[in-house]
Amino acid sequence: MVAGRQVKQLYEWLGSNPLERKILLAQSHAEGHRLTERVVRDYGAVLHTEIRTLTSWVLQLTELSLAQLRIRYISREEAYWVIHKLLVQASVAGEAYLRGISITPGVVRAFAEAVVELREAGLQARDIRPSHFESKAKGDCMQRLLDRYEQYLIEHQVSDFAGLLPIVRKLPKRHELIVTDPIDAWPVVHREMLECLGDPNRLCMVDRAPGWLDGDRPLPMASVAFRHAVGPLAEVRSVFRMMAQKRMAWDQTEIIVSDDEAYTGAIYSMSRMYGVNCTFSGGLPISYCQTGKAAESYLGWLESNFNVDFVVKALKRQVISLGSDEEQRIKNSSFIRELEGAAIGWGRERYRLAAKLVKAYAERSSEMDEADERLASMRESEAIWRHFDTFFGRLFEGLPDRQQISPVALLAEMITFVDRYAAIRDAGDREALSGMKGMLASMQRVSGQQGELPLHLAISFVRDVLSGIRISVTPLQEPGAVHVTSLSDGGQSGRQHTFIVGMTEKCWALSNRQHPILLDVERARISGGLPTSNQRTELRFAERSSRLGSITGNCYCSYGSYDTAGNTEHYPAFELVQLYRLNSADREADYETVYRHLGEPERYFGSASEPCSLDGTDAMLAHLVAPNGQIREGGEALLRLYPNLAGGARAASARQEELTLSEFDGMINTGCEAIAADIDSKPHLSASRLELFARCPLQYFYHEILGVRAISAPAFNRSQWLDPMQKGNLLHAIYNRYLEAASAQGLAEELMTPKHDRLLLERLTEEALREYAELIPAPSASVYRKECESIRQDTEIFFASERGRTSMPIWFELPLHDMGDPLEVELAEGLSVPVKGYIDRVDQIGPHQYKIYDYKTGNPKRFKEADYFAGGTQVQLALYSIAAQQLLRHSGLDKEASVVTSSYYFPTVRGLGEEAIREQNDSRKEQLSALISSVIEAIGQGVFPPTDNPEHCKWCDYRAVCGDHAVRFREKRTYESNADHLRSITEVNGHG
């Protein structure tokens, strides 16, 4: 507003009559306070001065009249929601101009701005003619909208700011001294209000200050410096670096940002990183606080068709918390594990799974014995899903089943979610929640429950509301803090140091676009009181230039010359070039001249020509980067600074360059207390663990000893319904249900084989398909139909295979444990191992003779009869055959039982019903005993090398950890000195 001579002029008016009441009218209260602070600092105290905006002053003066008339004032934001309601009604009624136009936040904003501007120009609906507009339909629409708006104000006894003019005209003149900006650019209604209220003889208007680059006058700044950097982050970091280098006082520093989105976040993050106090005149987006993040998680969940992944991510980031004092508290990790494993996926109907899981876990828990080690886990899962059932029930309670909702209702539901579940931690979180509630109250006051919109449109309106809420707004500079402003309000602090960042053409260019509703030619036809786009741009340019002209201290101008994200080059704004010309007295300087003067752009770690250590990164790079910009060999220095990196370097070297074995090759010191305890505490073995060790001992170490697990979460695949494991479980369930029923019928009729029934199999198949469809959502109906047909074809193969079988299935899912305790399986003299697991199926093939089956859905080619144990990777049938025989005998089910054969069974289209037979005899038992002894010995010795077959690495969850370790380890396997260390694992892999 003012600078230099204008500050003195302001002091003369405000200080001339110290005991007289004076009113300083400013564009904002913050601007008025900044001006008076500067006057006091430069010239002395001023007394009895009130700072007002025209709006606040008029509202104060009309407050009593409004109360007497029982009229309530509405703000511009409330007027926006009135226009929104009227536009929706007009669109539903078939308004010609609105046909084909979606009522989006941008459309409502444009119409609301047009209505407010017309009214503040002193115009009413009767003053508008359709002929004023380029299109008659548009003119009719605008005239009717303005008329409906005026009727709304009358019917609801509310008034906007323009509507206060009749009341202001009746108020007596004020005799205080009124100081203000020039009012020639004010709207017509604003000017008339001031003329009605103020005595012309007591009205003082401050001269408009010249722009900072106007004419040939000397620059107002004490000094000017120019810089450019590689992107906003590097630019902001250079600001902090210079503040540290020059030891600038924080409360003598202002940073003016040209692009709020690109720079404010960077300044906020770095200020927290370096412990620099910063205040933000425009505040911060609510997305910076937990409350805002929780709100965005909720909207994202709705927008994605209720994809549970948004809830999982919010829990992982601790944005929301599901525990409370009233409900059972369960760790977030348990919540996350259950949600990721439940395969809820997306779709509202899928959340009914929560209630089903509560019931399923409760039933399974009631059937378990108290000694079963799985009982505690079952009860915990039941408690979690009971909690989830309540949680999701609350979320859906206020949402209609159809995809239609009003923005007011949606905002209310979102606030309920945030209020109940957001992890509120600080004042910013509470401020954001308060802002949301205030906005909701404003919307409800003006328009109540608006008409329903499609969900995606309602979400866009709520997001628009959230974008207008700011936290930590500090319009006035505070002691001990850097003040961050924008191009719309910066330059008035009078501080010693001012940084202007982001001075690129793109950021500094003022838009000259016409208003989308009121075009320039239409404005000229309607009224001379409506400024054109050129006039508005010129006014904004003059106001900004005048404000920046008040900078009198040291000014540092910079811009990002390169966008690393977009891989594009940016050019400086014309103002930066002009400022360079005036500062250097080189009037002919062009962009190339400025670029040469700036030299190499600053990078995130700074400039080699001007080293300054802002943090450890700068200090380290100062040693690694030579003056010519070349990076020195700094590996040793780096490893000294970071011990963990040094350990990684040693591990890589040991794996790649040394032939002797070390802990980096999986040779673990089992004397280590932690490892020994882990090995000794294993309560049982299973076939899957034995086969995992034989396939890759290192993978076994990660999975079983260290307990590192890959995250298993359902991922959306638009071309697949069931993954291979889910499909295998479904087929397994169908086959067991069918054989249980068919075998029971066969035994009832004293048959030697099941009584097969194709219709029974088809019915059970359809039932299982419906159950899985409820549990696991299909991406589309066509994919679902395709995979169902594939499963039906698999059951046909199964049915054909079973009809030719002469045995009777007796047991299904036979457990190899008793009351939770593992089964102690005797393999050889002095060797017994605790085993737990389930046998898919046991058939009786003769008196006291049995055959066990393990269902497979993969390719039968790798189960060759010649490879009985396949290097230790196929021990399941051999181990479970011995275990089943001992279980049947010792339990009394069949004291003469003998498991004589076993089979890997492939009852699918892919496997064509093939079987890989494994005959059982004493010789195989001896081989199995030797194999398991070697496994136990290797584990006990801490031998966990990578696999001898790198093909296994292609599907390994730990591939990112190992890399090509298996390939590099091949040479070490054949190195003579390593033979003794690898003997036990070599013996395991040697069993064919």
TrEMBL record:
Q: Which residues form the PD-(D/E)XK endonuclease-like domain?
A: 684-962
- Which key words tag this protein in UniProt? ATP-binding, DNA damage, DNA repair, DNA-binding, Exonuclease, Helicase, Hydrolase, Nuclease, Nucleotide-binding
Q: Name one Pfam family in it.
A: PDDEXK_1
Q: Which InterPro entries match?
A: P-loop_NTPase, PDDEXK-like_dom_sf, PDDEXK_AddAB-type, Restrct_endonuc-II-like
Name a GO molecular-function annotation: exonuclease activity
Listed SUPFAM superfamilies: P-loop containing nucleoside triphosphate hydrolases, Restriction endonuclease-like
User: Which positions, given as ranges, span the membrane?
Assistant: none
UniProt-recorded name of the protein: RecB family exonuclease
The organism of origin for this protein:
Paenibacillus harenae
**Upper classification of the organism:** Bacteria, Bacillati, Bacillota, Bacilli, Bacillales
